[in-house]
Amino acid sequence: MSQIAIVIKFPVQTHVYKYLQQKVGPSMMVSRSNFFGNLVLDILSKREKAEKAPLGTMVFPVEIHEDYMNRFGFNISPNVIRKFNLQVDRMFKEEMCTYVSLTCSHNPVKKTEALSQFLNSFDISEDDIKTETLIKYIFRNEKDKKTFGQNVL
Length: 153
Known about the structure:
Layout: E1 5-12, H1 14-24, E2 28-29, H2 35-44, E3 58-65, H3 66-72, H4 78-106, H5 111-121, H6 131-152
Helix pairs in contact: 1-4, 2-4, 4-5, 4-6
């Protein structure tokens, strides 16, 4: 017996779209067994405060089986769409920082070169998201981790 599914077209930013294409393929089938499926189910099945995140210009299709819809019940709103984009963007940036940090600590590579390698692996260009913005994010992230480490020890 085949299950009925719906497709929600999430508006996402260009870099988020390209990141998702590399991580899950041209579209996503929601399942509790993977991070992004869990993320979608979590986002759609809870009502929380409004998120401030831009709606993107591209759309990424996310297919959800009717069974999940019936079990969890969903709220689809502009806030839910923003929340999805924001969460994937956060994961993208966390993975980016991890890659740059590990690459630079084990190789004689500058952070800008490591960042360029990371972005190239997802076919993300300067038109998609400004490199300068990401470099600032990497340095803020490193500073926050150092400050956190100093406060804990």
